[in-house]
Amino acid sequence: SPLIQMSGVEKQFANGTVAVRDMSLSIQKGEFVSFLGPSGCGKSTALKMVSGLLSVSRGKISVNGHAAGEGGDRNDIGFVFQEATLMPWATVFENVYLPLKLHGMSKAGARPRVEEALAMVGLAKFAKAYPRELSGGMKMRVSIARAMATKPKLLLMDEPFAALDEMTRAKLNDDVLALWEEHKLTVIFVTHSVFESVYLSNRVVVMAARPGRVVHDIPLPGGYPRT
Ligand code: ADP
Ligand code: ADP
Questions:
Q1: How do beta strands 4-12 and 18-27 pair?
Q2: Structure pTM?
Q3: What is the residue with the minimal CA distance to atom 4 of ligand 2?
Q4: Closest ligand to 88 CA?
Q5: Potential cystine with 42: which of 9, 19, 71, 191 (Cβ 3.0-4.6 Å)?
Q6: ipTM of model
Q7: Per residue in 12-45, pLDDT tens?
Q8: Looking at ligand 1, which residue's alpha carbon is closest to its atom 1?
Q9: Residue 207's Cα: distance from chain center in Å?
Q10: What are all long-range contacts of 113-117, with beta carbons under 8 Å and residues at least 24 apart?
Q11: How distant, in Å, are the alpha carbons of 82, 121, 157, 159 from that of 135?
């Protein structure tokens, strides 16, 4: 059975805006799917409904057999926001420790996990640094480490690299692919970059605006050939 099943999903916000209409998709374990489309087409709203951060107005989403947001295993989902959203007053270590702390782990108990997550993104030496000491790309790496700290099976990324320069972005794209392969993740990656969607994913779900809806669902078997 698919890891994620969306059937007839709609989101209407309190102000009446219909951000997503009649969205139906099945995503299998291990897929790297991108949601591609212009600003305002509902990509982020769709992703937040999958994560349970937003409720659905109509239709159904199941993740791993549970209604979105209602499984006992929120642990199994890592979310990376468009902004790195780090706590500025806390060290890199403390930022990555946060989700583990929320799940009741002690700092000492969590240390190996946090160190492992920082090593995944090449920041093992920066545990004691504060966010203000880091570049934009490094802050985004910390944010990815934080999402990986709970060892999620599903990684949801909401235009994570949109604010970064192209060189940094290219490097991070390769790093995300390496994480996906190494940790056998299922990834949904929201982007408005055609390049990013084709380079990264095995499947491009193209959305259009007003109201947000899926207009194409394009398989890219084997992904983009990389050397
Ligand atoms: P995208 O991620 O593709 O840029 P969004 O999912 O952020 O699109 O937004 C889709 C539509 O929903 C847009 O028209 C946006 O203005 C609207 N929208 C997003 N969040 C809210 C909200 N909390 N209340 C009302 N409208 C919203
Ligand atoms: P969940 O339990 O769903 O994982 P969290 O409570 O960890 O959610 O927080 C959601 C996101 O908001 C996380 O990425 C977290 O780091 C971020 N966050 C939480 N508190 C703050 C804060 N004070 N400043 C900035 N970002 C924060």
A1: antiparallel
A2: 0.87
A3: 99
A4: 2
A5: 19
A6: 0.75
A7: 999 999 999 999 999 999 999 999 999 999 999 9
A8: 40
A9: 17
A10: 113/149, 113/151, 114/145, 114/149, 117/145, 117/146, 117/148, 117/149
A11: 15, 14, 19, 18
